[in-house]
């Protein structure tokens, strides 16, 4: 029967071995400052290596017509296209247009949902960046009500 002290000692030893062998990642997330500093949709797409965005029916954006609470606006992005590298959600009038970036691999479906904060009514964009650099988007205007009175 092992004591609590022995279990903690062995756990610390295993963690130390994993850290020295490089099995723990050095950085959990890659931060793209240019993308978060972008004030327009085109600049955010360019920061991720995409060309000028072109509207497409193959990219689907799910968003409410009217958001009663701008602090938690449900947004979704999806596509059935093959060769998608990244999916972006952008809110045009937010201080930072980029809301979310999703990396896509062949092992997963390109179908994502999240919640975003919107300070005012704005156009919302769902952008699919393809492996060849093409950028395809869908756009929808979302009206944010202030206190439930319209905005």
Automatic annotation (TrEMBL):
Which residues fall in a coiled-coil region? none
Q: rRNA-binding: is it a keyword of this entry?
A: no
The domain of life for this entry's organism is Bacteria
InterPro entries, alphabetically? SoxY (IPR032711), SoxY_sf (IPR038162), Sulphur_oxidation_SoxY (IPR016568), TAT_signal (IPR006311)
**Species this chain originates from:** Ramlibacter lithotrophicus
Keywords (alphabetical) are:
Signal
Q: Where is the Ig-like SoxY domain?
A: 46-149
Look up the signal peptide feature and give its range.
1-30
Transport listed as a keyword: no
Q: Which Gene3D superfamilies match?
A: SoxY domain (2.60.40.2470)
Q: What's the protein called, per UniProt?
A: Thiosulfate oxidation carrier protein SoxY
């Amino acid at each position: 029967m092992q004591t609590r002290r022995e279990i903690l000692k062995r756990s610390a030893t295993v963690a130390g071995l994993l850290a020295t062998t490089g099995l723990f990642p050095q950085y959990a997330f890659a931060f793209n400052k240019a993308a978060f500093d972008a004030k327009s949709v085109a600049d955010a797409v360019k920061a991720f290596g995409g060309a000028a965005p072109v509207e497409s029916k193959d990219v689907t954006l799910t968003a409410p017509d009217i958001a009663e609470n701008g602090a938690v606006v449900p947004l979704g992005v999806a596509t059935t296209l093959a060769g998608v590298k990244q999916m972006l959600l952008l809110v045009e009038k937010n201080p930072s247009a980029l809301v979310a970036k999703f990396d896509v691999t062949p092992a997963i479906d390109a179908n994502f949902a999240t919640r975003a904060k919107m300070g005012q009514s704005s156009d919302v964009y769902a952008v699919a960046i393809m492996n060849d650099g093409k950028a395809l988007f869908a756009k929808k205007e979302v009206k944010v009500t202030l206190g439930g009175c319209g905005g």
